[in-house]
Amino acid sequence: MRSDRDNPFRIAQEQFDRAAALLELPDNVREVLRVPQRELTVRFPVMMDDGSTRIFTGYRVQHNLGRGPTKGGIRYHPSVDIDEVRALAMWMTWKCALVNIPYGGAKGGVVCDPAQLSSGELERLTRRFATEVAIVVGSERDIPAPDVNTNPQIMAWFMDTLSMQQGHTINAVVTGKPIEVGGSLGRNEATGRGVSLMVREWARRQRRRLEDLRVVVQGFGNVGGVAASLISALGCRVIAVGDASGGYLCRNGLNIAEMRRYAAQHPRRLLEGYSAPGVERIDNRALLETPCDVLVPAALENQITDQNAERIRATLIVEGANGPTTPQADEILEERGIVVVPDILANAGGVTVSYFEWVQGLQSFFWNEQDVNHRLEQIMVSAFEQVCDLADRRGISLRLAAYLLAVRRVADANLIRGLYP
Ligand SMILES: NC(=O)C1=CN([C@@H]2O[C@H](COP(=O)(O)OP(=O)(O)OC[C@H]3O[C@@H](n4cnc5c(N)ncnc54)[C@H](OP(=O)(O)O)[C@@H]3O)[C@@H](O)[C@H]2O)C=CC1
Ligand SMILES: O=C(O)CCC(=O)C(=O)O
Fold first, then answer.
1. Same structural domain for residues 111 and 60?
2. Residue having the nearest C-alpha atom to atom 9 of ligand 1
3. What is the predicted pLDDT for the residue at 421?
4. Which of 258, 278, 332, 379 counts the most CB atoms within 10 A of its CB?
5. Domain count, the chain
6. Same domain as 271, residue 141
7. pLDDT-above-90 percentage for the chain
8. Are residues 201 and 88 in the same domain?
9. What's the CATH code of the domain at 125?
10. What is the pLDDT averaged over residues 273-287?
11. Complex ipTM above 0.90?
12. Which residues, judged by CB distance below 6 Å to any ligand atom, belong to the binding site of ligand 1?
């Protein structure tokens, strides 16, 4: 059971309340935006390999539909609960508004541990969950995508299930699909690419040489693994990375390409067992507290809290994960002069290329990877500039500046549509 302090939904509401107060939003607007518009909880049976049946619980939450169809990933994890999904859906609303793509925010999740499921069980679970949420999902209504422990194969099963029910292929119903079934080039790398662009742009503004930056990355999955690799390709020294198996530190710089190959060849893509000359094993706590220039939390929520914020020794934090920093930690980091590029900006590359995938699917006209990456870069750099300029002008944190821009856009869209009669 989560306490109120680490409840992601309470945290998301607290972050919203701060922005709403500064924007002087009317009470009725605040009341609408601080809670999700729609929530669906589903309980569904799945046939296990041994012939038994297990009942799983899943959620799909649509936070706000004001700016368009809703968009957001699906998470498979034992700790998924309704408040986590509500928070993730709310963050999606602000994220889409900040990078100005025409979506509201949504998120989904199933309470399960995919590591304990066979591929057949995972497929049956996905197909049944897709059927249960089909009443709210659709290419013009709500478009899912991958999140923690879900991947292109799971998106393909999801799309195939909804297509079977309609009797024809509807590939724009979900993004993050394999290229063979309407996926976009560049989507798999997009979130990590966006994170790496934040590091590059911050260094440019601060007149720091990329070669001088030591970087630590927590999480080595779709976001953390790709971010570590692209940050390393920028010329930075990635000195520590970690996943659920713990951390791996080498002050001279890790060989990220080799570590990615190792993880890909091991069950569940774990780094467990990786060793190389000069590489030390550390725990997750030590990983986050490793002295560095840039820290990229890219795993789960609530990693930087009032319990460890005093001990973080980074100059810049780039939030690859959603919600890795609590509001109490934010205050401590701000007092200590540590800059945080907030999740709704830093990890917006994924949903941005999901938007490109959706557009390509609807038009049945596919772009080359260079076009995808170029458009992604334009959007991410422009959003970063807008947030930094506002933060500088008002003397506020990047998170608050990002919220002011995003919440204003969402409130305006809802007001213009006349949603508050
Ligand atoms: N995928 C996407 O496009 C986007 C994802 N995000 C956010 O990024 C974060 C990561 O997502 P994603 O990379 O897709 O998920 P993945 O499932 O691909 O990877 C998650 C990573 O986090 C690690 N991890 C899990 N628990 C811990 C822990 N307690 N300590 C250290 N590492 C841990 C996992 O390790 P192990 O493999 O060992 O379990 C894995 O390396 C989430 O917050 C997600 O919401 C945000 C925007 C888009
Ligand atoms: O690609 C998407 O549509 C959503 C990605 C996501 O879940 C996120 O940005 O947190």
1. yes
2. 321
3. 60
4. 379
5. 2
6. no
7. 96
8. no
9. 3.40.50.10860
10. 96
11. yes
12. 146-149, 191, 218-224, 242-245, 268-270, 284, 298-300, 320-322, 347, 350
Q: Which of 107, 128, 214, 260 is flagged as catalytic?
A: 107
Tens of pLDDT along 56-82?
999 999 999 999 999 999 999 999 999
pLDDT digits (tens, 9 = 90+) for 162-179: 999 999 999 999 999 999
Mean pLDDT for 231-241 is: 98
Residue nearest to atom 6 of ligand 1 (CA): 321
Please write the tens of the pLDDT for every residue from 352-377: 999 999 999 999 999 999 999 999 99
């993004």: which residue's tokens? 175
Same domain for 114 and 206, yes or no, is no
Annotated binding-site positions for NAD(+): 191, 222
Binding residues: 71, 95, 191, 222, 354
Counting from 1 in the atom list of ligand 1, the atom nearest the Cα of 272 is 38
- Boundary-marking domain end, from 147, 172, 197: 172
Ligand 2 atom showing the smallest separation from residue 190 Cα: 1
68 and 134 both lie in a single domain: yes
What ligand has the least distance to the C-alpha of 245?
1
Residue 295: give its domain's CATH number. Answer: 3.40.50.720
Mean pLDDT of the chain: 97
User: What is the predicted pLDDT for the residue at 269?
Assistant: 66
Q: Residue 256's domain spans which residues?
A: 188-341
85 is a domain residue:
yes
Ligand nearest to the CA of 287: 1
pLDDT of residue 148: 96
Same domain, 146 and 218: no
Q: Which of 77, 195, 223, 289 to mutate to test the pocket of ligand 1 (most atoms within 8 A of CB)?
A: 223
pLDDT digit string, tens, across residues 97-120? 999 999 999 999 999 999 999 999
Q: What is the pLDDT of residue 3?
A: 79
Annotated binding site for substrate: 71, 95, 354
